[in-house]
Design a protein that fits this description.
binds zinc ion, 16% strand, Rossmann fold
Length: 257
């Protein structure tokens, strides 16, 4: 199975991808869509668990290994670690991170890019920062005047942000179609087990993951869908849509009927 469809995910920490796009990765990876992930920091300032799974010094290596396990489970083939320090991403030199992200966009040539919304979902400074840097790079990647040595310009078709509130709050409201900022709702129930495994792979982060997902009475609901807001892209015929590629022209996958 071969396809020229491609999605680039751009997030701040190991585990952001499992929270936000694990199901989408399973769904589209299974259709042959090429998936790549940029992770800006190793979350080295994060918690180590209770009981701790490692020391604070060991945490960057542990979190990288957890991330690699998680993305292998959900079929994200390409990982790019941008190498910034956790909780200091907002201070990353804009020219440097722009170059890194422009190179990735021009290399993978995705139709769809997914990052945090401008408020980072929960106002986390690193989430806000990666949204800012990704939005900047998406525009720069399409303009040949920017960084001509960083690859052939590439215009993506659709930029997606995470919803303006956390998706677990949105899902619990059960009136998704009336909520502004919920433009795509992807049913991931076929892959909810894999999403759960990817989340559990982030063992050092079990406190937050258990609190949000596994200790919730409605965890099945929380593992049933992922959702996104269109930052820009083709006009939406309805909201929410159920396919990230609706309205995007791609050459047909070879070997699919
Ligand atoms: Zn995060």
């Amino acid at each position: 199975m071969r396809t020229d469809r491609s999605i680039l995910f751009s997030f701040a920490h190991p585990d952001d991808e499992s929270f936000l796009v694990a199901g989408v990765a399973c769904k589209y990876g299974g259709q042959g869509v090429r998936l790549s992930l940029a992770t800006a920091t190793l979350g080295q300032a994060g918690k180590t668990g209770n009981p701790p799974v490692c020391t604070q010094r060991e945490l960057p290596g542990v979190r990288e290994a957890e991330l690699r396990t998680a993305i292998a489970l959900v079929g994200i083939a390409q990982l790019h670690l941008l190498g910034y320090r956790d909780q200091e991403l907002a201070a990353a030199p804009p020219e440097e991170i722009r170059r890194q992200l422009v190179q990735l966009i021009r290399l993978h040539r995705p139709q769809v890019v997914v990052t945090f919304d401008p408020n980072g979902t929960n106002l986390h400074a690193d989430h806000i920062a990666i949204s800012r840097f990704t939005n900047d790079a998406v525009v720069a990647a399409a303009d040949p005047r920017w960084l001509p040595e960083a690859g052939k310009p590439h215009q993506i078709d659709r930029l997606l942000w995470t919803p303006p509130t956390s998706f677990w709050e949105a899902l619990r409201s059960r009136r998704l179609s009336e909520q502004p900022g919920i433009d795509f709702v992807i049913d991931i129930r076929l892959w909810s087990e894999l999403k759960a495994k990817a989340l559990r792979a982030h063992r050092s982060q079990h406190l937050a993951i258990d609190r949000i997902f596994f200790n919730s009475a409605d965890k099945e609901l929380l593992l049933s869908a992922e959702m996104f807001r269109q930052a820009w892209g083709p006009p939406l015929s309805q909201r929410p849509l159920d396919d990230l590629f609706t309205g995007i022209e791609t050459s047909q996958a070879v070997g699919l009927d």
